[in-house]
Write a structure and sequence with these properties.
single chain; Rossmann fold; formyl-coa transferase, domain 3; CoA-transferase activity; CoA transferase; CoA-Trfase_fam_III; transferase
C-alpha cells in the first residue's frame, strides 16, 4: 500500500470542513486509506487547533497529530466568491465532512438538501457536540465536557471522590473513528444504490457508546458504577501490581489463567482457596487478593515476572512513559513512527495511522499542510486560470502559504 492509487479509498475525494480534533481525526483515517482529503480552512487563521500547544517553533503539534496526508486550501467563507468556490469544491467531491453546530452549514451556502438535490451521490458526514436534536443541539461541545456528561469520568479515577479525565481526548478520537466508519459504510451503500446518504455522530453519543458494560450495568441492574483506580471494575486479578522494582499490569481473564498465575507465583494452593475459587469470588475479595499477590511478586524484578507471564499466555506488561514507548522493540517493529518533511523543509517524526492493509502499514505520504499550502494547486484543478487565481489571492478571497526562503533556495 505504498501509493495512494493502490489504497482502498483511492479515487475518493473528501472535502474536510472540520477543525479541532474529532473531525480531523476522521478525515486522517480516510486519508490513510488513500482518499484525497482537501482540508478547507478559513483564511483567518485556519483550523483552530493550529493555535493550540504544544509547539515546535511555529508548528502546532496538536494540529500535526491529526492532519497527515491532507491538502489545505484557505478561503474567505464570508465573501460571495469564497462561498462559490467552496460550493464548487463540495459539488466535485464524494464526501463532505463537517463539525459545525446543526444549521451552520446551510448558513454557509451549503444546505445539505440543496447539495444532495444537485449531486445525489454526495455523502455528507457531520460530527457535533450533542447531536442534531434535543435541547443541547446548538450548544458548543468539547472533549472533556462530553467525557463528563457521558459518564466516562465517573468511572475513571481512584474513587468516587476523585474522578479524572482521560489523559488523551478519547471522546474526540472515538467520535472521529465512528464518523470514519459511517463514511466507509455510506460509500458501500452508494456503490449498491448509486445514492449518497447523510451520516452523523456527536461527542456525547461517542462517549456513551464507550460505556460498554458499565452503562449496561446501570441499565440492567440500576447499579451506578464508581471508579476503581487501576483495577478492572469487574475482573480480578486484573490491574496494576507492585513487584521488587516496578509496577506491572497483570490481566487474568479466565480460571485457567488464574491457576497458571498461582503456579508461576509459587503458590498453586492459592487457586483453591474458597475466597478466590471463582471469578466472582476473586472480584469480591480483590483487596485481600492484591496484597497476597504483591507479597509473592516482591521477590523478583517486574520485567522478569512479565517474561514468565507472557510465556505462559497470561497478558502482562509494564507501564511506560512516552520515551519508553517509542524505545520499545515492539513499537519499533510496527514502524509506528515515520519521518516526513513539512513544506518549510523541517523534519517531523509523526505517528502513522493504526491500520495495515494486506500486511502493509498505512504510510504517511504527505506532512500536515501549512495553511493554504495547496490553494493554488487545488484551484488550478478546478480549472481556474493563473490570472483568476492571482486575482483571488490579491483580493483576499483565498490565501496561499508563503514558500520559505530556504525552500526556494
Amino acid at each position: 500500500m505504498g501509493t495512494a492509487a493502490s489504497a482502498p479509498l483511492a479515487g475518493i475525494t473528501v472535502v474536510d470542513l472540520t477543525r479541532a480534533l474529532a473531525g480531523p481525526y476522521a478525515t486522517a483515517l480516510l486519508a490513510d486509506m488513500g482518499a484525497t482529503v482537501i482540508k478547507v480552512e478559513s483564511i483567518k487563521g485556519g483550523d483552530s487547533s493550529r493555535s493550540w500547544p504544544p509547539f515546535e517553533d511555529e508548528h502546532s503539534l496538536y494540529f500535526d497529530s491529526t492532519n497527515r496526508n491532507k491538502s489545505s486550501v484557505a478561503i474567505d467563507f464570508y465573501t460571495d466568491e469564497g462561498k462559490a468556490l467552496l460550493r464548487r469544491l463540495v459539488l466535485g467531491a464524494d464526501v463532505l465532512v463537517e463539525n459545525f453546530r446543526p444549521g451552520v452549514l446551510a448558513g454557509m451556502g451549503l444546505d445539505p438538501d440543496e447539495l444532495r438535490a444537485e449531486r445525489p451521490e454526495l455523502i455528507i458526514a457531520s460530527v457535533s457536540g450533542f447531536g442534531s436534536t434535543g435541547p443541547l443541539s446548538q450548544a458548543a461541545g468539547l472533549d472533556q465536557v462530553a467525557q463528563g456528561m457521558s459518564g466516562l469520568m465517573s468511572v475513571t479515577g481512584t474513587d468516587a471522590g476523585h474522578m479524572y479525565r482521560f489523559g488523551v481526548p478519547i471522546v474526540d478520537m472515538s467520535a472521529g473513528m465512528f464518523a470514519a466508519f459511517g463514511i466507509a459504510a455510506a460509500l458501500v451503500e452508494r456503490q449498491r444504490t448509486g445514492a449518497g446518504i447523510e451520516v452523523s455522530t456527536s461527542l456525547l453519543e461517542a462517549g456513551l457508546a464507550l460505556s460498554a458494560f458499565q452503562g449496561q450495568r446501570y441499565l440492567s441492574t440500576g447499579e451506578v458504577p464508581v471508579p476503581q483506580g487501576n483495577d478492572h471494575p469487574v475482573l480480578s486479578p486484573y490491574g496494576v501490581f507492585k513487584t521488587a522494582d516496578i509496577l506491572v499490569i497483570i490481566a487474568v481473564g479466565s480460571d485457567k489463567q488464574w491457576r497458571q498465575l498461582c503456579g508461576l507465583l509459587g503458590a498453586p494452593e492459592l487457586a483453591d482457596e474458597p475466597e478466590y475459587l471463582s471469578g466472582r469470588d476473586r472480584a469480591a475479595n480483590r483487596e485481600a487478593l492484591q496484597l497476597r499477590i504483591e507479597q509473592l511478586l516482591a521477590g523478583r524484578p517486574g520485567l522478569e515476572w512479565i517474561e514468565d507471564f507472557r510465556a505462559a499466555g497470561i497478558p502482562a506488561g509494564p507501564i511506560y512513559n512516552y520515551r519508553q514507548v517509542f524505545e520499545d522493540a515492539q513499537v519499533r517493529e510496527l514502524d509506528m513512527v515515520q519521518r516526513v518533511r513539512r513544506s518549510d523543509g523541517s523534519e517531523l517524526p509523526l505517528l502513522r495511522g493504526p491500520l495495515s492493509v494486506n500486511g502493509a502499514a498505512t504510510p504517511i505520504r504527505k506532512a500536515p499542510p501549512a495553511l493554504g499550502e495547496d490553494t493554488r494547486r487545488i484551484l488550478a484543478e478546478l480549472r481556474l486560470s493563473e490570472e483568476q487565481i492571482a486575482g483571488l489571492i490579491e483580493a483576499g478571497v483565498v490565501r496561499e502559504a508563503p514558500v520559505p526562503e530556504a525552500v526556494r533556495a
